[in-house]
User: Fold this.
Amino acid sequence: MTATNKKAAKQREPLFHVAKRDAVPLWKSLLIRLVALALAFLFCGLLTFLITRHSPLELYESMFLDVFRTSRRVWKMIKDIAVLLCISLAVTPAFRMRFWNIGAEGQVLVGCLATTACMYYLGGKVPDHLLIPIMLVSALISGAVWGLIPAVFKAKWNTNETLFTLMMNYIATYLVAYFLLVWTPDGSSTLPRLQHGHLPVFFDNDYALIVMVVVALTLLMYVYLYYSKQGYEISVVGESENTARYVGISVPRVIIRTMLVSGAVCGLAGFLIVGGLDHSITTESAGGRGFTAIMVSWLAKFNPILMVATSFLLIFLDHGAARMSQDFGMSDAFPKVITGIILFFVIGCEFFINYRLVFRTKASAKREEKA
Assistant:
């Protein structure tokens, strides 16, 4: 190969390259997401027919309609959406600050543990109208402390918050396991439902209070993140810590304060789970929602209002997959595969919202040939 040919080979453009998009209009991003969902359902329908020989329409009817068949199913779904949304709101302030808090599972668990401890030791000794506020304060403080620990290490010694918060989940799980052994002398580690400290029932609905609390929290978190000084500082620190320091923002203080807020809201979720739903605790009380909340927050671009939609999507798919499994006698695995594929399409479409493929033009190809 001559020197000229070598030079031309070096300068040859690739067939395409990835370029960052400018700001995409809301209608266009929504359209891309809707197209991704439609493609996901078409692909899953074809896969379903090839593997199970069931009609895709029958499966989707089970998935879409049976979830709303009775008011009980609807309220159960709304309850699950509210709890997941609460935890998603908890991790969002930290994520906007680019503090990758993977410890929501543990922060919720210690909130559950603090609530259960109050019910176990004070139930029957303190009237419920006093016990419930004690449970709430204990859960908020416990969650806040659990969030504070990795925040201090990050602020003072710049530790890796992802690994730190992840490890805190395991500590919380084993703390719950230890107290279950203490509270169950028979060694079963199964704590019966506690009889005191139940949250009040509104409108003859066990879930109404939880939904009202989460709706109020969603609005408060939106105002906090977009219209408060603290929310502005969180955004600046997330964009650039150097810029934050230049304008006089104390980065360590913002990190610690934000994680206190995140941990406290996780503690609130633990309070709602134990006081309003389970009235007991296990090592699975958080149910993996601390990790699912990461996806909810990320898909919504850390916007509390949009998180209502992303929470609904994930819970709806989960409940719909469960109905498919029951109605058609399938293994639990296959509906979850369908759910995973749909989520893969939804997450994958974010690439096309943020980036575009720029293909090599004919003119540039001709120039390369001439070279």
Observations:
- The radius of gyration is 25 Å.
- The mean pLDDT is 87.
- DSSP finds 15 helices and two strands in the chain.
